[in-house]
Structure formats: structure tokens, C-alpha cells
Amino acid sequence: MDSLTAMEASNARVATELPPGLVGVFIGATSGIGENCLKAFAKHATKPRAYFVGRSQEAGDRILSELKELNPEGSYIFRKADVSLIKVVDEICINIKSKEKAINILCLSQGVLQMYAKTAEDLHLSVALTHYSRMRFIVNLLPLIQNATSLRRVISVFTAGKEGPLYTDDIQAWKIPMRALTGHAASLTTAAFEALGKKAPDVSFIHAFPGAVDTNFGRKGQGAIAYAIRQVFKAMMLFMEVIPHEECGERFAFIMTSAKYPAKLPVDGTSGLALAKGEEVAKGTDGKAGSGVYSIDQNGESYGAKTEEMMAKLRKEGAVEKVWADLETEWKRITGLEAV
Question: Cβ of 116: how many Cβ atoms within 10 Å?
């Protein structure tokens, strides 16, 4: 297990051992874990350039000011947007692609705890944000990530390690029992990442569980279910080791930059900071070290046998292909295009 001290020691090498001008894109970054990830990137990188997207202009303006104080040599661009809409995702990606030739890090944490609401594009709102929107950002920006000569990394902050049965006949989870939702949602991300790993073996895909971080999860306006879960979560946190925001950022800075998570077919110079003595490359979701697709815990460690066995079962059932086919079907229905 990587201790926080070891992670911080690795992060301290980012400024001197990784090239200046790293480009990061952070979606869902105006609060909570996404904000922590963004700030950690700005803190450690030399002359970074960061695009970040969120729903609150007020929060975006605040974070812009704080980023400039944190690292005045960086460049920071905020976009207020509702990324539950695939057409909006496409607009953002087209704009970024007009300005950048390469992206090093794509970090996705958008989400909402609002069950059974529908977007204007006829997608389940919560699944639109955690699945359809996140994967759309990835496929749209993947060519730029593959152009990077340093880090090439995609991180989805969600329910890694909780992979369970995947309901391929109800991917949007309209009728799935509440007790099965977490397993289904976790498997959607990991299965989609396995599909992406085949398409882009020169990129690292990391599904990460953040641990107990106090965020605005289930915030006001997300409905009665969200409020109830928020109260339960608050009560549980009284008995859990809560990860402070800055520490959360340090943990994700390590995940963003360490060679612990290489691509399956890494290009020279793109695997990240060399591991310290005694550290080992993480196992992928197929159980093989360094295989490019990872499901990791808050300590940066692979979940191991339970996840590997579940993903092997889903692969055998053809779930990876079914999940990807559904994504392309919905994207085409909404936009007419597989990607922009």
C-alpha cells in the first residue's frame, strides 16, 4: 500500500521530472473531489494549462482566483455548462480541440444523486452524467490524449471496486433494484474502460474510488432520495476516517502522474514518474500487472480478485461489447455522430 507520505514524495518530483506545460481537462471540478484534483494538478505542475467545467459560475470564478494564487505561472480556463447533455459535451470538446494539440490528463467527476429524472435528450440524468457524458468526453478528446508526448491518462472518479452484475437490458437503470445500482454503475465504467483500452492501448484508463471525502454529495435541490442518502452518509462519516480535501488532492495527484498505472502499450516518456524502490506497477482489471485499465481504491491500490473475477464474468457474457454498442447507439441518436 502506498502511504500518503510516499505519494507526497512522488508528487514533489512532478515539477522537476515532468515537462512544463502539462495540459489537464477537469470535468465536474467546481466542488468536492473534482476541485481537489484540479488544485493538486495546478499546485504540482510547472506552467500547467487547465480547462475546468462545472455548473456554478460563482464557484468557477472563486476557483480561478485560487488557482492563480496557487500557481501564478499556470493558465486556467473555466466553462460553465450542463454536461448531462451530450450536445453540450460536444461543444466543449470542439472548443478545446480548437485550442490544443495534446492533452495529458482527463479527469472526470461529474455526477448528481437524483434518481429517475430525465435529461432533455431522453437519458437518465444520473447515468447521463456518470456514464454517457464521461465516455463522450473521452472519445472526443482521445486523439489529443494520444498526441501527448508525456502523460496520457484518463481518470474517472466514481465507484471503483464495487463492480457487480451488469443489467445490459437496462443500462440506464430505470428499473434496477436500488440494492443493485452501485454494482451496475461501477461495472458500466469499468466495462467501458476495458472497451477503450482495446481502442487506445497507449493510454491509461483509471476508475478510482476516492474514499470518504466530505463533499456536497446529495446537495440541496437533488430531491428527497439524495437528501436522505446525504443524511445517512453524514452519520456514517462519524465512524469513518474522513479524507481531508488537500489530502484527497495529493492522492489524486499521485494517480495522475505515477508510473504505477502505465498504458498497456506505453509510448516512451508517457508512463509517468518512475516508481520508488519497493513500489510495484498496479494490476489491471484483468489481473495482469500494467495492463492499462485499472480499478483502484483511495490508496491507489488495485482492488484485486473480486473485481478481476467480476470483470472476467462480464467479459465472458459479452457485456463489454454490449455497453459500448449502447453508448454508440445513444450518441448517434442524439447527435448523429460517434464522436466529434
Answer: 12
Domains contained in the chain, number? 1
DSSP 163-193: -----TT-TT-SS--HHHHHHHHHHHHHHHH
Residue at 245 is within a domain: yes
**Could you tell me the pTM of the whole model?**
0.94
Euclidean distance between CA atoms 155 and 338, whole angstroms: 21
Range of the domain at 10: 4-333
pLDDT tens-place string over residues 82-107: 999 999 999 999 999 999 999 999 99
Q: What is the pLDDT of residues 31-59, one digit of tens each?
A: 999 999 999 999 999 999 999 999 999 99
77 has a pLDDT exceeding 90: yes
Nearest to 21 by CA among 107, 152, 137, 150: 150
Q: Cell 472497451 maps to which residue? A: 195
Q: Sheet harboring 105-108: ordered strands across?
A: 75-80, 49-54, 23-27, 105-108, 153-157, 204-208, 293-296
Residue 33 is assigned to a structural domain of this protein: yes
CA 299 to chain centre: 16
Per the domain annotation, does 339 fall within a domain? no
- Cell for 86? 451530450
Q: What angle do CA 322, 202, 199 make, to 5 degrees?
A: 25
Q: Is residue 139 in a domain?
A: yes
Q: How do residues 160-201 score in pLDDT, each as one tens digit?
A: 999 999 999 999 999 999 999 999 999 999 999 999 999 999
Determine if residue 202 is left, alpha or beta; phi over 0 gives left, psi from -120 to 50 gives alpha, anything else beta: alpha
Judged against a pLDDT cut of 70, whether residue 220 lies above it is answered with no
CA nearest neighbour of 155 among 105, 198, 195: 105
Say which CATH number the domain at 220 has: 3.40.50.720
Amino acid letter, residue 228: A
